[in-house]
Amino acid sequence: MSLPGLSSGAESEGQTHLIDLAAGSEWRVEVPATSQLNVTLLDGTAEVFGTELAVGAQYSFVGQNTAIYTWYGCKLQYSSTLHSSISTSSATFSEYTSDETPMTVYANLHFALETLRNESKPPSVLVLGPPYSGKTSICKILASYANKTGRFPMVVNLDPAMGVYSCPGGLSAAPVSDILDVEDSTGGWGSSQVNGPALLHPKSPLVYYYGLETPQKNSKYFKHVASRLALGVQARLSADKKVRESGIIIDTPGTGMSDSAVSSVIADFKVTVVVVVGNERLYSDLAKRYKEKTNLTVLKVPKSGGCVDLDPPAVRATQSRSMRDYFYGTIKQTLDPYSVTVDYSAVTVYRVLEESELDSSALPAGEQADSQHSAQHLVKLETSAILQNCVMAMLNASPADSVDLLVQSEVLGYVHVITADDDRRKLVIRMPVPGRLPQRPFVIGDYRYHE
C-alpha cells in the first residue's frame, strides 16, 4: 500500500506505468544501485536538470536520484527492472510528484546570467551551499540552459569526492559544448561518453589531483590545487573566444569550504556572481563580507525539495561506479582495459599528505620525507603491498622531477593497481589503453577500487 503521490516500485517490478505530469510539476525518483528505471517521454516536453528528453526515446537510470520537470505538461511511461549486473532478490525505488519546485527561480537566474553575456560581461558563477542542497543540480541546469542558447560554459568541479570528467580525487574543468548525459549515474556530466581509451578527450578536460575526500583534510593543498586549476582555466578562456564569452560555472564540495578557501576561489577564478543555495546565514555572511566589492554580486536561491541526503555507503557506491566506468565503460559504451605486470622499481609513487601528517614525526614507516615536505604536501612512498587496490593519478611530469614541480603538474590519466606482491616485488596494473606503463610519476590519495 502506498501513500498518494508516493509509491515504491517493489510491488510492480517489470510492469509498465503511465504518468501525466501537469505543467510546472516535477516527478522525483530515487533509484538504488539494485534497480534500473526505464523512462520514455510519450508526449509533451520534459527535462532532467535542464537537459530536454526526446519523445519516444527510452532513458535508463541506475543507482541515482533524478527529477523530470515539465514546463507545459507531459506524459511519461516507466517501468523498473532488476539491474542485471547486481545479484539481489528485489528491485525497489521510490517516486512521487511535486508541484512545488524552484525551477522558475533557476530559470530566472539563467536569464540574468544570459543578460550579462549579452552585455559582454561573461559571468564567473560560484555555487555555494550546505551538503545535499542541490548545488550540482543547479550547475547542471545553468550549464544546460546556457548550452541551449549556443554557449559553451566552462564547468569547474571543486568537489574531490565527485568525479567529473575524472576519477574521484581530481579537481577538473571542461567546457560544456553539447547536451549532458542524463543517464550517467556518476554525475550526469557525460563522463560515460568520454572515459577510457580516448586519445583526444572530446571535452579537453583539465584535471589536477587533490586526492583527499574533503578540503578540510588539507586546506592549504586544496587551495593550491584549486589555484593551479584556475590558472589553466584562465589560459583556456584566453585562447577560446566562444568559451570566454560563455563564462564559468563552479561547483563546490558537498562538505563546504573554509572562509579562506572561498576567498581564494573567488580571487583565483575572478568570480563575479556567488549563488548561495538554501542557507540564509551563509548568504548574509557573504553579502556583508563582500558588500564593498562592486564587481561581485551575492544571490540566494531556494533549495529544491527533491534534494536527498546520501549516507556514506551510497557515496562510496557512486565513487566506485565512477572508477569502474573509467576503466570498463558503461552499458552504452563498454571498454576493455589492459593490464601490465611491472617491477616495483618501475614505478615512482607519492602520497598526498593530510594536514595532521605535515609534521615528519607523524609519517608512517616506509615513507621518506625531506626538510621541505611540509610545504610540498606530497611524500614519496616505498613501493609495497600498500598500493594494492589504489587508483593512482598519473602526472604530466618525469619521475626524476622534484616535488615542487610535481605539485604544479596536471593529471594525464589514471591507473588501477590490481595486485601488489611483496614476495615477487611485482605490480599488476590496469590501464584504460593498451601499451607499456608510461614512465611518469604517480600520486595516490584516499581512493581505492575493490572489484
TrEMBL record:
One of its GO terms (biological process) is mRNA 3'-end processing. Gene3D superfamilies: Clp1, DNA binding domain, P-loop containing nucleotide triphosphate hydrolases, Pre-mRNA cleavage complex subunit Clp1, C-terminal domain. The keyword Nucleotide-binding applies. ATP binds at residues 26, 132-137. Component of a pre-mRNA cleavage factor complex. Interacts directly with PCF11. One of its GO terms (molecular function) is polynucleotide 5'-hydroxyl-kinase activity. Residues 21-119 form the Clp1 N-terminal domain. Required for endonucleolytic cleavage during polyadenylation-dependent pre-mRNA 3'-end formation. Residues 129-329 form the Clp1 P-loop domain. The gene is CLP1. Pfam families: Clp1, CLP1_N, CLP1_P. Keywords: ATP-binding, mRNA processing, Nucleotide-binding, Nucleus. This is Polynucleotide 5'-hydroxyl-kinase GRC3. It comes from Blastobotrys adeninivorans (Yeast). Belongs to the Clp1 family. Clp1 subfamily. One of its GO terms (cellular component) is mRNA cleavage factor complex. Residues 335-451 form the Clp1 C-terminal domain. It is found in: Nucleus.
